[in-house]
Write a structure and sequence with these properties.
It contains 6 helices and no strands. By secondary structure, the protein is mainly alpha-helical. The chain has 2 domains: 54 residues; 100 residues, no CATH class. α1 runs parallel beside α3. The protein is rod-shaped, with a radius of gyration of 39 Å. Bound molecules: zinc ion. The site of zinc ion has 6 residues, from α1 and α3. The site of zinc ion (ZN) has 6 residues, from α1 and α3.
C-alpha cells in the first residue's frame, strides 16, 4: 500500500469501517511508515480535542428558547425602527419636495379655497340649525375621529406584530 492510499483510508480505519483485508493493509503500512503514523496520531488528537470540547460545554437547557426570544426581539426592534424611520422620512422629505413643485401652490390654493368654503357653510349652518343639533353632530364627529384613530393604531400594531415592515 502506498502513502496516498493509506491516508485516504485513515479516517475509515479509525472508525473501523474498512474491510478486514484493508484494515490489515493499513496496519501493515502504518508499522512501516512514520509519516502515516504521525498523520494518524494527529487525526486522533484532533478528534479527541473536538470530542472533549463538545462534551465539556453542555448547552444550557433554555438556550434554544433564549436564542429564539432574542431573534424575535431583534426582529421587532428592527420592524419598529424601520417603521419609525419611514414615517419620519415621509414626514420630513415630502414637504421639501412639495415646496419645490408647482403642485404645492395649487394644492395649497385648493385646501385654502376648500377651507374657506367649509367655513362659510359652517357659519351658514350655525345661523340656520339649532345649537343642540350642532352639538350632537360635533359629538358624532369626535366619536368617529377617535374610532378612526384607534383603528389606525390597531392596524399599525398588527402590522408590527406580523413583521410586515421587515
Ligand atoms: Zn505512508
Amino acid at each position: 500500500m502506498k502513502c496516498v492510499q493509506c491516508m485516504e483510508r485513515l479516517s475509515e480505519y479509525l472508525d473501523s469501517e474498512l474491510s478486514s483485508v484493508e484494515q490489515q493493509q493499513v496496519e501493515t503500512h502504518l508499522e512501516e511508515c512514520s509519516d502515516c503514523q504521525n498523520l494518524m496520531n494527529d487525526i486522533n488528537a484532533l478528534r479527541e480535542a473536538v470530542k472533549f470540547n463538545i462534551e465539556s460545554i453542555p448547552a444550557p437547557p433554555d438556550l434554544a428558547d433564549k436564542i429564539l426570544l432574542s431573534i424575535q426581539k431583534e426582529k421587532q426592534k428592527n420592524a419598529k425602527s424601520q417603521w419609525i424611520a419611514s414615517v419620519l422620512l415621509i414626514f420630513f422629505i415630502s414637504p421639501v419636495f412639495l415646496l419645490f413643485t408647482r403642485v404645492f401652490s395649487s394644492v395649497f390654493y385648493l385646501f385654502y379655497t376648500t377651507g374657506i368654503a367649509f367655513w362659510r357653510s359652517f357659519v351658514t349652518l350655525m345661523t340656520v340649525v339649532s345649537p343642540s343639533i350642532m352639538l350632537s353632530v360635533g359629538i358624532l364627529a369626535l366619536t368617529g375621529i377617535s374610532l378612526g384613530f384607534f383603528a389606525i393604531r390597531k392596524l399599525i400594531h398588527d402590522f408590527e406584530m406580523n413583521g410586515v415592515f421587515q
